[in-house]
Amino acid sequence: MKRLLNTSLFYAVFGLAAGLFYREFTNVYNFTGWTPLSVLHTHALMLGMFTFLILLLFEKVFHITQHKKFKPFYMIYNIGLLSTLLMLTVRGVTTVLGTDLTSGANAAISGVAGLAHILLTVAIIQLFILLYTIIGNENNLVKSSQKE
């Protein structure tokens, strides 16, 4: 449970810092347009902090971290989310600075962001499989105890 709480706290601090960075960085450069930095903090807070707070509740009720399918989900989800946040940061900073990216650099940023989103998708599918497995087992235990 402590790992889930610590992970949630990490993303909360990251998200709050990202919001501050967005505000100050765009002010320093007098940037008024749209930048991916404007959604960086909400991605960190919602996909990071809130997701792991909700998983903390599932842990309390279902002990999901004890299941063998949890560790792969946890690792893939965090790699995907951290990569997504990194690419939002890179794309946002280059946007604010007005950096002219080569087509290769632009493609690399988009490619890594796409792979990160694929990892998040795979992890979310893994999470639902895990939850269905656990809840299915809970229902089987209830049915078998009612028969006795």
Would you tell me the overall average pLDDT?
Answer: 94
Unreliable runs, pLDDT <50, ≥5 residues?
none
Order of helices and strands: HHHH
Number of DSSP helical runs: 4
What is the terminal-to-terminal distance?
Answer: 34 Å
Approximately what portion of the residues adopt beta-strand conformation? Answer: under 5%
Helix content: over 70%
Q: How does the helix and strand content classify structurally?
A: mainly alpha
Looking at the structure, what is the overall shape? elongated
Domain count: 1
* Integer-rounded radius of gyration: 19 Å
Tell me about the largest β-sheet. Answer: none
What is the number of beta strands?
Answer: 0
Can you walk me through this structure?
The chain is an all-alpha fold and 148 residues long. The chain has one domain. 85% of the residues lie in helices and 0% in strands. The protein is built from four helices and no strands. It has helices at 2-28, 37-62, 70-97, 103-147. Helix 1 packs antiparallel against helix 2, helix 2 (37-62) packs antiparallel against helix 3 and helix 3 packs antiparallel against helix 4. The two termini are 34 Å apart.
